[in-house]
Amino acid sequence: MKVFLGTILLLGCLQGIVSCVLLFRSKRHRQANRLLGALILVITLATLRVYGNDEGWWDKGLVLILVGNFVPFFLVMAAGPLAYLYVRACLDPRFVFRKRDRIHFVPVLLDLVPVITVCIYVVLLAFGRVKPGGGAWGNFIDSYNVYVDIPRWISVTVYVLAGWKMLKGAPDSTRWIRHFLTGLTVFQVIWLINLIPYEFPASGNWMLDHLDWYPLYIPMTVLSYWLGIKGYLSSQLMPVSGALLTKTMAQQTIRTLEKIMKEDKAYRNPDLNLAQLAKQAGVPTKTVSTVLNQHLGQSVNEYINGYRIKEVQEKLLEGGARERTIAGLAYESGFNSLPTFQRAFKAISGVSPKEFLIKSGIE
């Protein structure tokens, strides 16, 4: 049975490597596919470490000893952020990984503690500060690896929940992303069921002696198989153009645009266009266009001119027409052409500027 289960782990590692290569080389949805490929790589490395432990790889020859001690196979703290950013990238195909996104990966330092510990021990050993053998150091690493699984589980769970929150109100075309998060949620439940007894010495030692890590890593291997195959196929079917925006993301974009218009008065710039508006908002142009068209039912020009006309109307009602001409107010509000202003005013107000003044009792 152990040979059979070990074979499943090995095949899972090979399949994970193939999936990573395919996803990283895919030209469709490059950002999303690379994030998914990185997530599968995290799973594959952890599985490979466990399989190597069972096969005694890390004690065979100098090269494998160095690999086993100095390569960080467990980078589980990266799994949650990668899953979360993958969901973001799928919902918005023009998502770009920015410097501020790196903060999500700071907790990966917890995964590096065992490797850092080995490095410190080797340096101290070279200077004669510690004795050969390192039994106490090894015991520390073993104990650390047991208890660090608690923050690892919490981290992945928090990011999975954040993914579900982001997906709230998403269109039906995001079915794969729902399946993706469902698969991770199921695995988190399995992990928790295994985590609790493993954290207690008595039950943990019994499980390791009789079951090893298979109750956790076989489901992890199945997850890797499924993510690799289904994720790659889904990426080939997912439309390239257009952003799959959730209601939350759309509302956030709308609030950002409103701030730029109301507080910064961006509409007063006569050259303001989609590209400049998106740049000021820090949002992809396709996202801005999609929000305006699908959620507000307006073109970019209609949206910008709406603020310009509103400002002109407010100034007219305040008596601005007595001090300045209507044309002057139009130019101050961002229009660079009087005919364009008159057409926009009538299209939005239903009346001409002159009729608006008469209707308002100003003239």
UniProtKB/TrEMBL annotation:
PANTHER family cross-referenced by the UniProt entry: ARAC-FAMILY TRANSCRIPTIONAL REGULATOR
Check the record and name the SUPFAM superfamilies matching this protein: Homeodomain-like (SSF46689)
- The HTH araC/xylS-type domain, residue ranges: 251-359
Q: Which InterPro entries match?
A: Homeodomain-like_sf, HTH_AraC, HTH_AraC-typ_CS
Q: Which named protein is this?
A: AraC-like DNA-binding protein
What lineage is on file? Bacteria, Pseudomonadati, Bacteroidota, Chitinophagia, Chitinophagales
Identify a single GO molecular function assigned to this protein: sequence-specific DNA binding
| Membrane-crossing residue ranges in chain numbering | 6-24, 36-52, 64-87, 108-130, 150-167, 179-196, 216-233
Q: Reply yes or no: does the keyword Transcription apply.
A: yes
Q: Which UniProt keywords apply?
A: DNA-binding, Membrane, Transcription, Transcription regulation, Transmembrane, Transmembrane helix
Q: Does the keyword DNA-binding apply?
A: yes
Q: What Pfam families does the entry give? A: HTH_18
